[in-house]
Please model this.
Amino acid sequence: MTEHDFRPNIYDTTLEKGSVTWESPSNIALVKYWGKKKDQIPENPSISFTLNHCKTITTLEFTKKGDHNHFEFEVYLDGEKKDDFKPKIQTFFERIEVYLPFLKQYQFIIKTENTFPHSSGIASSASGMSALALCLMSVEKQLIKSDVIVGAVEDGINEVYFNQKASFLARLGSGSACRSIEGDLIVWGKTKSIEGSTDLFGIKYPYKVHENFKGFQDTILLVDKGEKQVSSTVGHNLMHNHPYAQNRFEQAHQNIENLKDILELGDLKAFNALVESEALTLHAMMLTSMPYFILMKPNTLEIINKIWEFREKTGLHISFTLDAGANVHVLYPKRESQEILQFIESELVDFCQNGHYICDQIGFGAELINIE
Ligand code: PMV
Model:
């Protein structure tokens, strides 16, 4: 597939107005995406668990308008008008217009809500951008009859094309959003050890995964609910001319290759080492960029040390990962949930802001809620 395959050659149906609702999850990377080229092309491959409970629910209402000269949309979060979200969506629309040429023909109302608190320090860009991309795909699907050739596909918009293009569009909104369309493990970025992998969209991990990873748990400890001091866009850009960038990018390819055996064999010890090393490497890239910055907080380190002590003492398979912030994702197999949750509640929750944490687990991707 190339970018060209996502340009529709024909809209042969008219549609005056309608409404569509999608629910799309967040995801947590095991091997991290950090560094990008033009058009949100990643510098290295990444792989993530799709989450199950942390979701965005977006309704897109659309009405045909007279002029076709500009984008027209309003955005609401939890029923409240959000003009400060508009620039990001305007940029998104500009980037994707060549792939969705109907965008200027409609007036849109975007109504969105998250299942997690907006000010939780959990990035809503992955779930938010993927939900919006899916809504737009549902509009496009209605504009094309099923028996015409679309892009590279000969029977209109089939499910494979729909998901690939939704992921492709979501990527142009926020890179990691392309890993939120499907589940349960998604690879984004071309790498030789994963057949079918591409920089353009996320694909389902195509190899065997051991029972140990079924229903894997992710308890998110909300250490700092504030806005990040450094956005991920700035962070990605600091990988240009970064002294360790090339080694880091190569390491990500190697880690994905190593993860293949780990996932097949169910080697939880090796999984923990790889995932924790990835999280700390991500933050090491931030510590060693120019300008440098620190997103971890003292309580992030307190939690990491407690996890290591507990693991040493009990032999249980608990590990952590981090995204671009201070919050800690605690990962563990379902069968060890009881002991580990007890430990989290008695020893880790004190380090969370207002004692807040979210229990999540591996999920299977976005769902269409309503279309009319
Ligand atoms: O999708 P972005 O541009 O917000 O980047 C996200 C990057 C990390 O969350 C730090 C890592 C990842 O792979 O999700």
Summary: The pocket of PMV is lined by residues 29, 32-34, 46, 123, 125, 174-176, 232, 236, 282, 323-324 (CB under 6 Å). The CA atoms of residues 310 and 343 lie 8 Å apart. The mean pLDDT is 94.
